[in-house]
Design brief:
The protein is of the alpha+beta class. It has 16 helices and 14 strands. The strands form four sheets. It has a seven-stranded mixed beta sheet with strand order 1-2-3-4-10-7-5, with helices on both faces. The protein has a three-stranded antiparallel beta sheet with strand order 6-14-11. Strands 8-9 form a two-stranded antiparallel sheet.
Length: about 400
């Protein structure tokens, strides 16, 4: 991992591969190198620009006219190659098209709707904690971080009971596909056919239960807000955005609280800190590590000139620990004002499932803190490797009831 040479515009060239397995296993030393090298760097391995400081990441996220999403938010440029699946009407779209479809999802997942489902989500969290207290020792990823959202979100969406085992692998494919043509991406796409088929079928109107989020999206066709062709694609966006962020966010929070018992005690002493504990875990662990944008024109960013049609890789996780923006960025502190982190993005493309993720994270951490005195890690945590997401595959823990 070395820095070498400079481009004409004074942008340092770095020999860093953010999709290499050793980088994914421990990204922090490289994040620091990227931040300290310059506000804008050039990554020779994939011929892309990179931004790792908070100010530049935030600037790119909040200028969709210059840094567009419609050419793909992964390495692949949709202007030059065919996407592996029909592009997302939310993630891979720009205004004005994005504005219209985004409004539909914002209505379906509004704060008002979250208030209506809150009691149901909280009750499901309590049920999950009951089951975990019976077990005492369990895997905090499969038995908690995955099991809880899977017990509540697919029902809220209106999915059929059978086939839900495809949901998490499908999200994993989507996020691996944003990376380069490495082994992670190729294997994910090779395995994706059954997951894709399941999701495509579930997104059709006749397969969604009345009253769920999915049916509400389809109802917008009658309102004239979207077309019958767009509706299933918007349900698909919800399926990939509504589950993985939550699973990895809850996994990150439990992993943090188990490692930092002083913070766990703080939460137990004051349950109103549950939302902050979840938010700080999203900043600290950054379940979504990176996203790309493509320049629509020649632009100057913090003194660096970037030409039109260039891919710019935003290191969201590095920005979330940038000492220029955060005090003691490498410490997990549930009383921190973590708002402003870019763990859910920022600007018009801010994660559309964030209200669902925040609600599930908050009610789950509240239920755990109310009834559990201690969480101890009792085995080696295992990483789940993904080109875009950072999370664990396994976290063996033992809990002590309160």
């Amino acid at each position: 991992m070395t820095a070498s040479g400079c481009a004409g515009s004074g942008v340092p060239h770095l020999d860093v591969d953010p999709f290499d397995m050793s980088f994914l296993a421990d990204p922090y030393p490289a994040h620091e190198l990227l931040r300290e090298a310059a506000p804008v760097v050039y990554l020779d391995k994939w011929s892309v620009y990179g931004v790792a400081r908070y100010a530049e990441v935030h600037a790119v996220l909040n200028d969709p006219a210059t840094f567009c999403s419609s050419r793909g938010v992964g390495l692949s440029d949709f202007k030059k190659e065919t996407p592996w699946r029909p592009p997302s009407l939310i993630l891979e779209a720009d205004p004005p098209a994005h504005t219209r479809t985004r409004a539909v999802l914002s209505k379906v997942l509004s704060p008002t709707v979250m208030k209506q489902v809150r009691d149901r989500f909280a009750a499901a969290a309590e049920e999950r904690v009951d089951a975990l207290l019976d077990q005492r020792s369990f895997d905090a990823i499969t038995d908690l971080a995955e099991a809880y959202p899977l017990s509540i979100f697919p029902d809220a969406l209106g999915l059929m009971p059978e086939g839900r085992e495809h949901l998490i692998p499908y999200a994993s494919v989507v996020f691996n596909a944003f990376g380069p043509p490495n082994r992670l991406r190729q294997e994910a796409i090779e395995r994706s056919a059954p997951h894709q088929a399941y999701v495509a079928e579930q997104c059709q109107r006749e397969n969604l239960a009345p009253g769920g989020f999915g049916a509400c999206i389809h109802a917008q066709v009658e309102e004239g807000a979207i077309t019958a062709v767009e509706a299933p694609l918007l349900v698909r966006s919800l399926l990939s955005a509504g589950l993985d962020t939550t699973v990895n966010g809850i996994g990150a929070a439990v992993y943090c609280l188990a490692r930092f018992p002083d913070q766990w005690q703080r939460l137990r002493d004051d349950l109103t800190l549950a939302r902050g504990a979840f938010e700080e875990a999203v900043r600290f662990e950054s379940p979504v590590q990176t996203f790309f944008r493509t320049t629509t024109r020649e632009v100057e960013l913090s003194g660096a000139k970037i030409g039109e049609g260039e891919k710019v890789l935003m290191f969201l996780a590095a920005a979330n620990r940038d000492p220029r923006r955060w005090d003691k960025p490498d410490s997990y502190d549930i009383t921190r004002r973590a708002s402003g982190h870019v763990g859910f993005g920022s600007g018009i493309h801010m994660c559309v499932g964030q209200l669902v993720a925040r609600l599930e994270g908050e009610v789950m951490l509240t239920a755990l803190a109310r009834r559990i005195a201690r969480i101890e890690i009792t085995g080696e945590p295992k990483r789940r490797f993904n080109n875009t997401l950072r999370g664990l595959d396994s976290l063996p823990v033992t809990i002590t009831p309160a």
